[in-house]
């Protein structure tokens, strides 16, 4: 969402120790603040602002979490936008720095916004950055974020004519579609799946499982028929959750996991095959997911089902629990 500044000299803060005051941005100055978030100065940047504002309106993204740092003349120098989500998380977007001497100003602004989020009952702040944005990543690290993982975003086409073969589950292993009555069982399965996980293990213990579940339900369009609970000997032992994004003609695999006792039996492949089978006949064109690049067993599982990497992103996080 951030674009390298076309004229970085316009945004450089002063050389002294005062990086400038921080203010919350209301409607009168939102266009100016967004311009500093996505670019600066040129006609092209104005077009980017218009596109961003349109996207915010159509996607119901609130802009009351927009903060800026002012320069000595009162102009907006840098901006940070916090977008809270269900599940007590917030995504952070910040002006792109173009020199090392800007890091302190923007990091301080990010830190200030995170402190405001803690007062709003947000437990976790997140940021997704391009692998090439080394200076931008340094800025977030200076704002007390930590590197969670390099995420690989994978994709595979959906075919109406060639659905995946049906899963072959061993005796004692069953699946059932999700409903509200199974919420507690799903939480049990999810909590068990986090034990010794290879997928973003740094997240373990930072959020309540009920909040994680709320975040999954708020991703895309929740359809309980695309959520499946797996049982082993009638005990919750895994799940696969898929959410459509009709406007983007894709379905996202938002979660798949198994309890330790269910691993090593090929059930992950069968569960994934089951989930993909639920998508037979749908109008979406692709299935997407994100996975920790270090999780080689999961990568092998997805690649065996035809998923291919399309992009990579650094995921950074900052825990806000207890910070308020």
Task: Kindly describe this structure.
The protein is built from eight helices and twelve strands. It has 324 residues and is of the alpha+beta class. The chain has two domains: 8-144, Gcn5-related N-acetyltransferase (GNAT) (Aminopeptidase, 3-Layer(aba) Sandwich), CATH 3.40.630; 154-312, Gcn5-related N-acetyltransferase (GNAT) (Aminopeptidase), CATH 3.40.630.30. The protein has a twelve-stranded mixed β-sheet, with helices on both faces. Strand 9 (235-245) and strand 10 (250-258) form a beta hairpin. The chain is elongated. Residues 1-17 and 40-44 have low confidence and may be disordered.
Features:
disordered N terminus; 2 domains; twelve-stranded mixed beta sheet; single chain; 28% helix; alpha+beta; elongated; Aminopeptidase; 324 residues
Please indicate the percent range of residues in DSSP E strands (runs of 2 or more).
25-35%
For the record, the CATH architecture of the largest domain stands as: 3-Layer(aba) Sandwich
CATH class label of the largest domain: Alpha Beta
Helix content: 25-40%
Number of strands: 12
How many domains comprise the coordinates?
Answer: 2
* CATH homologous superfamily placement of the largest domain: Gcn5-related N-acetyltransferase (GNAT)
How far apart the termini lie comes to 28 Å
Secondary structure layout plus pairing:
Blueprint: E1 22-24, H1 30-38, H2 43-58, E2 66-70, E3 76-85, E4 89-94, H3 103-119, E5 124-129, H4 134-142, E6 146-157, E7 173-177, H5 183-193, H6 209-217, E8 227-232, E9 235-245, E10 250-258, H7 267-277, E11 286-292, H8 296-304, E12 308-319
Parallel strand pairs: 4-5, 10-11
Antiparallel strand pairs: 1-2, 2-3, 3-4, 5-12, 6-11, 6-12, 7-8, 8-9, 9-10
């Amino acid at each position: 969402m951030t674009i390298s500044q076309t004229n970085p000299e316009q945004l450089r803060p002063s050389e002294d120790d005062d990086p400038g005051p921080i203010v919350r941005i209301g409607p009168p100055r939102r266009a100016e603040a967004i311009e500093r978030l996505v670019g600066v100065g040129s006609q092209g940047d104005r077009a980017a602002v218009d596109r961003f504002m349109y996207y915010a309106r159509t996607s119901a993204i609130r802009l009351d979490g927009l903060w800026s740092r002012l320069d000595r003349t009162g102009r907006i120098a840098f901006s940070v936008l916090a977008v809270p989500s269900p599940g007590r998380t917030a995504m952070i977007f910040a002006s792109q720095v173009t020199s090392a001497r800007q890091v302190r100003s923007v990091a301080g602004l990010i830190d200030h916004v995170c402190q405001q989020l803690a007062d709003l009952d947000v437990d976790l702040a997140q940021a997704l950055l391009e692998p090439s944005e080394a200076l931008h990543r340094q800025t977030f690290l200076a704002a007390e974020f930590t590197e969670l993982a390099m995420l690989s975003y994978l994709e595979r086409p959906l075919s109406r004519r060639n659905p995946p073969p049906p899963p072959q589950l061993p005796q004692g292993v069953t699946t059932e579609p999700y409903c509200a009555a199974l919420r507690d069982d799903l939480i049990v399965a999810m909590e068990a799946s986090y034990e010794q996980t290879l997928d973003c293990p740094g997240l373990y213990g930072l959020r309540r499982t009920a909040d994680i579940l709320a975040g999954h339900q708020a991703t895309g369009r929740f359809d309980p028929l695309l959520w499946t609970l797996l049982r082993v000997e009638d005990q919750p032992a895994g799940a696969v959750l898929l959410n459509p994004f009709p406007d983007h003609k894709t379905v996202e695999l938002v979660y798949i996991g198994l309890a330790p006792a269910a691993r090593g039996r090929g059930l992950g492949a069968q569960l994934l095959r089951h989930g993909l089978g639920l998508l037979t006949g749908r109008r979406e064109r692709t299935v997407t997911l994100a996975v920790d690049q270090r999780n080689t067993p999961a990568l092998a599982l997805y690649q065996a089902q035809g998923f291919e990497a399309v992009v990579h992103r650094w995921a950074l996080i900052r825990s806000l629990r207890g910070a308020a």
